[in-house]
Amino acid sequence: MKLKKPFLLILTLALSISLAACGNNKNSNAGGSTNTEKENTGSKNTTQTSDLSGSILASGSTALQPLVDQVGKKFNEKNPGVSVQVQGGGSGTGLTQVSGGQVQIGNSDVFAEEKLDASAAAELKDHQVAVVAMAAVTNKDTGVTNLTKQQLVDIFTGKITNWKDVQGKDQPIVIVNRPSSSGTRATFEKFALGQKTEDIKGSIQEDSSGTVAKIVAETPGAIGYLALSYIDDTVQSISYDGVEATVDNVASGKYPVWAYEHMYTKGEPDETTKAFLDYFLSPEVQDSDVVDLGYIPVSKMQVKRDAEGKIVQ
Predict the structure, then answer these.
(1) Which of 37, 106, 134, 296 is least crowded, fewest Cβ atoms below 10 Å from its Cβ?
(2) Model pTM greater than 0.85?
(3) What are the pLDDT digits (tens) for 133-161?
């Protein structure tokens, strides 16, 4: 009996220590589990707020299309969860589709007020991402490198039909025009001709700037007009009243045939579209893609225009 009490005391003490250890382990495990959940939750929330997803459909101006295409691909590489699709169709199409909610962005060479009624235009938010200059271009064999405003008016209204009448070759003039919905045509008529024109019988009409460039390059006697981003050594760029269509001449206001490149949204853009537009205006895009493709950053312009085409600065 004398040997049993110490033994029981030792046994009781050992059991107490063991139970206390188990309790501590349980508390420790419980605490670890909670911390892990908090960490996982925090990580999940961070991922949700930093990763963009969704799709952006932009349509409209073919003059702006090459730039939107290129920037869209770069944005997609940085944001794999976002799909950016770009379609042409002309400024009128882009403005109509963004107004109708069919696309997130309507690309346009002209202000919305010039194509839509006042109430529809008022619903759109203007994002000016670049400036585009346009020039008359001819087939390289016409023998002409400069035209005055009046000569251009006479050509596009049918009063002059042969290049010899403007110091060129004895060769019939073939007009390659854009459809009435084209923002490029609207800009050319407004700032180069100073008036709207009717389509002349026998003229060619094409919906795409790329096709216009190809036809002018391959058709003897052809004349059209293109954004600088489409002009290369396959066609002859024509000076306007003796002023070349250069970046410096456009930025200073000496060369008048230019327009803002607008990317309209219907009201404020959603988070993904806003991120795309913010990226478009970043130095990474404005100082490289915009310049490389022949556009002019808005920040470099020394003059500004309002929706009526008036210089306001």
Answers:
(1) 37
(2) no
(3) 999 999 999 999 999 999 999 999 999 99
Q: Which amino acid is at 303?
A: V
Q: Is the pLDDT of residue 190 over 70?
A: yes
Q: Which of 285, 272, 266, 309 is CA-nearest to residue 102?
A: 266
